[in-house]
Request: fold
Amino acid sequence: MASVSDPRPGSYPRRWLILATVLIGTLTGTLGNSMANVALPAIMDHFSVGISQATWVVTVYILLFAVPLPVFGRLGDMYGYKRIYLVGMSVFAFAALLAALAPTFPALIAFRALQGLANAPTLPSVMAIVAYVFPPQERGRAMGVWALVNSSAHAIGPPLSGFLTEYLGWPAMFYVNIPLCVLGAIFIWRLVPPDTRRGGGNFDYIGAITLTLATLTLMFNLTQGRKAGWASPTGIALWVIFIGLVGAFLIAERTARSAFVELSLFGNRPFTAATVVVSLQLFCQFGLALIMPLFLIRIQGYTSGQAGLLVFPLPIAMALVAPLAGRLTDSYGCRLSCISGMGLVALAGLGLLLLGAGTSAWYVAATLMLMGVGMGMIQSPTAAAVTHVVAQERLGLALGLFNMFRFVGGTLGATVFGMVLGSFSASLDLVGAFHLDFGLVVGLALVASLVALNVPKRVKDER
Reply:
């Protein structure tokens, strides 16, 4: 493959068709996550398990998807993004079939874990292929289309799962992904440019293993440790293991002849800034996704269905704004979009601070829509920024790290927002506890706006 800095004008006249093809993987992978929650009651009834066990259907997928992203990004750098993408989609379809036919609940969890692992090559591969077939002046728009598909799949997943589960049973949410994967694999094989094997050094197993285990320990502790208590012996042991693994990773990377992650990457200020900004955006997004339905139900007295409709403007606004944000990135640069987007998030957060028991539904919907507009201006510009500032031979790894930190930020956001709500609802009134979370959104958005000053401006074409 050519260098990412080469715009290759006119080399791929079918690049938009290629984009549509590779985004089938994004669609199936995101649906695999967003459809699971609605089907949980049916799965609980079928296997006679409780809610604490059933949530592993969701949790294990996220863990096994997010944690190995850098590993598959690095494998893509070494052996080709198209190759690992095709392997991932094939295994994902097979795992979906096995999950639909799972005879026991432990088997279902195992097949969901395999699904998550098979989906891990998707994000770094899609973004790296976009960076290869699109010239720099079009990458923002291409990433905007990716963000549109990703947000749309999050939005349509729950109602689609509800329909399939009610009329065809919970296995239907797995069956629906199989033909999409098969179709996607065929088109990727035919349309995506062939990979050429690239060297880039040996694979650093020690660095890859220590980073993967450290991230897995952290995310497991964030998602499950709060239930047992972080001060419990188990929680403390997990934190000690995490710190030890991080130390081992840093030592390994400083001494390795061909490091899995060159630590100088984090000295790349534009890359680090883009990663921090998108991580803070997802921190706020996941946190609000947790607490807003609770606020609408417990404080304002809405039903679950009404609360779902009221929070719907946020993901819809994100989906609709994403392509526009990509176009603005191509014309005016990544920095402006990131600063403006997080500024709007801060403004919407100030609007949330005015919420009370009697606040009108229109005000709630409008504020969340403004929040969605701001968040929608972050995803595609930050992803495009990474493709501009990292060399091709390490781009897959960089994109894997970028997306891994996104999900760590999102998981941390849901944990922290829930912890604040639980800790202060007794000492303050419940509305005051919610307002602390809303104030946290404002503060983090302002911090992200300052960090975004280091996101690169527009990268001019090199012809």
Remarks:
- Confidence is low (pLDDT under 50) at residues 1-10.
- Residues 269-299 form the longest helix (31 residues).
